[in-house]
Amino acid sequence: MRRLWLPGGLVLLVVLVALAAPLLGLPDPIRQDVARRLAGPMPGSPLGRDEFGRDVLSRLVWGARASLTVAFASAAIACVVGTLLGLLGGWFRGLGEFFAVRSMDVLLCFPPVLLALLVVTLLGPGSGTLILVLAALYLPGFVRVTWAEVLSARSHDYVEAVRALGAPTHRILLRTVLPNIAGPVLVQLSLAVASAVVLESGLSFLGLGVVPPEPSWGLMIRGARGTMAQAPLLLLWPCLALSLTILAMNLLCDALRDAADPRTAPAAPPRWVDRLLPGLLPPPRADAVLSMQGLTIEIVTPRGTIRPVEDVSLSVRAGETLAVVGESGSGKSLTALAAMGLLPPAARPVAGAAWFQGRDLLRLEEAEHRRLRGSAIAMVFQDPMSSLNPVHRIGDQVAEAIRAHQPLSARAARARAVDLLRRTGIADPDRRARAFPHELSGGMRQRVMIAMAIANRPALLIADEPTTALDVTVQAQILDLLAGLQRETGMALVFITHNLGVVAEIADRVTVLYAGQVVEEGTVAEVFGAPLHPYTAALLAAVPEGDGMAAGIPGTVPPPQDLPPGCRFAPRCPHAAPACDAPQLLAERAGRAVRCTRADELALAA
Amino acid sequence: MIWAAQRLAVSLLLVWCVASIVFLAIHLVPGDPAELLLSSGGVAPDPAAVAELRERLGLDRPLLDQYVAFLAGLPRGDLGASLVDDYPVLDEILLRLPRTLELIGAGALLAVLIGIPAGTRAALHRGGAFDRFASALAALLLAVPVFVVGTLLVLVFAQMLRWMPAGGYVPLAQDPGRHLLLLSLPALAIGKGLVAVVFRMTRTAVLDMLARDHVRTARAKGLPPGRILRRHVVRNALTPVLTVLALQMGSLLGGTVLVEYVFNWPGLSTPLLRAVEARDYPMVVGIVLVISALFVLLNLVMDLIYALLDPRVRRA
Predict the structure, then answer these.
(1) What is the pLDDT of residues B289-315, one digit of tens each?
(2) Which Pfam families does the annotation name (chain A) (predicted)?
């Protein structure tokens, strides 16, 4: 909102000066005084006199009046007529829509200045003609904006509801639709006024707008051009007045548009803070491909720093599948992105380590991390449609992944890409390689993503909900594919999901996350057979069995800025007790781990 | 193919609408062209002379006949002859249109060469010094009207520094160096708005692309940053940028009038302005028609290029 003040004030000043022109006691802007032709500043004429000896300051002020009259009048006419046409076209559809909206296409066929010249030819120059021309030029903008808004408003529930109640059309239009389109129409109005000032001055400059001797900024520039060798300042004043006015109007338009569109909020720049020194944490497990310890991620938000991931440890061995399970908001995706070095700019790891092939992924140089990404560590994302680049052929996108890490010719990489597509079960890979992502089915696209991920024989593959966006039957095929590829290559697989059925099918071990913390860890058989944490038990109980309905867990995951001080699951836990108010620690229990003080006393059924 | 044919048919229909509107507007507005042409200084013209001119121009025939004759002439490229000097309108247009197009092309070249790299850089270092400076400059360039920039350029470079003449034109074949020198100032004036618009659009589109999933995929593949920028960010951002550029170029088809006037560049607008003042109807109609048809054609070509850049459009 602060951005509105300066340009808004400037525009207001110009408007007020133009309105008050007759009250300011300035000399007559039209009276000529050839004896004082091109005279410099003098008493009564602080800016001097022009080529006919007329007072420059007075002509500037009265010129503002002429420009603004034309601009506001034409924009207002266009706004009223255009909004009406758009309302009618949007509401009645059919023939009304055709004439109201399609006729605008014809109007848009004329470049603006050209249409103005044509009308001026027919009607002769003058302020009246200008207003008419400019109104016609801005008409399509208003019609389009209103029409589009009505179409979207029509489908809103509340408009449907009022219609169903039998309210007459004109009342619906006035009461429900008009207030909703006020914002966009206001933005359009400010745009029209600003651009009308530009066009008015341009046409007047050509001698086709305001008729001399009436003052106008365009005419003043036209006049001063002739004498620019003797009096360059005469050129400067109207240029300055015109440009500043338009600049202020444009800035006001931008500010208005941003105010009307809440999506454009500026993001906070990332802050660099020293991370914890490495070596304070226990050494990595010798046989693990990835061993993550105590990972904590902070995000600086306008309302304070939050920790969506806190003290998360997990590890996975070669040939093993680790499932990371949790509801949305549990921090599982951020954990994976941290290992990839792909955290969003606002998020940074502040504690912990992620050991991979003897290196801590959290402390790698970007260039080093890049060499690992796509080769030793690869990732498959949730939505294969948006994760593939829509403008490149899929064969090229796979080949690109190969050539990023292997010195292959384009031809050889292409042949390898086709081979990879075949390995991921894509029929007719030669032809499919030339397809664009939108020409493939969802399951096919995910196979392409997997082909890309395994292109350089990764030691670790992270799959972030790779089947969530797919059909149930396709889900099973993709799971089979991943399991088969893992058997062939012996890679470690981290499988992120909220679907426990998938976990049982594919995983060896499971790590359960809740509100950014690990709450339970163990083999799938142990954890599913005898859950130690009430949250795990609740998750398992929520899985629908046979035809039974899913029980669901009452309540929601607490947001990271509003975590309970003790056990984070306590507010939703059927077993909550006073002991749960204290912070919970992750405790080892016979090769498993659980974050619950009452784990020993509870006998949880699967 | 069917899609392209449909677009072509719609375009032809639009051109026909434009031609009809221009024709009707000229003939339905009160005032007899012949009378206007012959009257000078408020003296009523000789009725016999008016009648003779009306007959020569075919203005005495029924409106429908004139309309049919006008439409029949269009496919043959017959746009009539100037009322002032009898010169065929089409020849005049063919002589001057290339010069106008050259001006627009030079401005668009500036926009692509400056606007796209600057917009990309501003987006990559969003909120940084370059971004703030370039964004402010773009706002300023958009605010200063084109004839003001032109006039100030003349004032500074021709009047004060005396580096080059205030305006004029020399054919490329006659003196390439001088041709380019004379082209430079008008091209700058035309290009300033295009550069600003392309800069803004590129900045927005690149910022949008940087947040897309497919860019994250490209990073996950371990591609070098330069390649990600070229193939997965800028390449995808080109579609909206070029669309905006084409729209702007289209509106420039008529908008060069001001620049050609300021720099005395003998493009299409000189005869247009002269014809407007002299009420030389065939000339005005011809030029407006040709420019509008070009405008429609440009939009058509742009749609086709759009389909080339974005494979998803092709199927629709």
Answers:
(1) 888 888 888 878 877 777 777 777 655
(2) ABC_tran, BPD_transp_1, oligo_HPY
| Distance of residue A21 Cα from the nearest chain B Cα, in angstroms | 24
Which tokens is A55 given? Answer: 């007072």
Closest CA of chain A from B53, distance in Å: 19
Which positions ≥6 away from A308 have C-beta within 8 Å?
A: A297, A299, A329, A331, A334, A347, A516, A560
Mean pLDDT by runs of 10 across the 606 residues of chain A is 78 89 80 76 78 84 89 93 85 73 75 78 81 89 82 72 74 73 82 88 86 86 85 86 90 80 42 35 66 90 86 91 88 91 87 88 89 92 89 92 92 93 91 92 91 92 88 86 90 91 90 92 90 89 61 78 86 85 82 84 65
Chain A environment of B22 (Cβ under 8 Å): 118
Query: Residue A470 has what pLDDT?
Result: 81
Write the burial class of residue A90 (CB in 10 Å: 0-12 exposed, 13-18 middle, 19+ buried): buried
Flag if B223 and A374 touch (Cβ within 8 Å).
yes
Strands A509-514 and A347-356: unpaired
Is there a contact between A436 and B312 if contact means CB atoms under 8 Å apart? Answer: yes
**Per the CB < 8 Å rule, is B217 touching A112?**
no
* A246·B144 Cβ contact <8 A: yes
Q: What is the pTM of this model?
A: 0.80
Model pLDDT, residue B36: 67
Chain B residues with CB under 8 Å of A235 CB are: 151-152, 155
What is the least distance, in Å, from the CA of A519 to any CA of chain B? 29
Nearest to B9 by CA among B252, B73, B17, A99: B17
* Contact yes or no for A120 and B276 at CB 8 A: yes
For A488, other C-beta atoms within 10 Å of its C-beta total: 11
Closest CB from A109, A202, A373 relative to B18: A109
Q: Got the DSSP string for B91-118? A: HHHHHHHHHHHHHHHHHHHHIIIIIHHH
Q: What is the ipTM of this complex?
A: 0.80
Burial of A24 (0-12, 13-18, 19+ CB in 10 A): exposed
CATH number for A2-20+47-260: choose from 3.30.360.10, 2.60.40.2470, 3.90.1150.10, 1.10.3720.10: 1.10.3720.10
Segments of chain B scoring below 50 in pLDDT = 316
User: Residue A213: is the preceding peptide bond cis (ω within 30°)?
Assistant: yes
Task: Report the CATH superfamily, name and number, of domain A267-316+327-369+512-544+551-606.
Answer: P-loop containing nucleotide triphosphate hydrolases (3.40.50.300)
Q: Where are the domains of chain A?
A: 2-20+47-260, 267-316+327-369+512-544+551-606, 383-455
Interface probe, candidates B7, B148, B299, chain A, greatest A C-beta count within 10 A: B148
User: Chain B partners of A404 at a C-beta cutoff of 8 Å?
Assistant: 221-224, 227
Q: Residue A379: enclosing H or E segment and its boundaries? A: strand A377-380
Task: Closest CB to A114: pick one of B146, B155, B288.
Answer: B288
3-state helix, strand, coil in chain A (%, to 5): 50, 15, 35
Mutate to test the interface with A, among B147, B294, B315 (most CBs of A within 10 A): B147
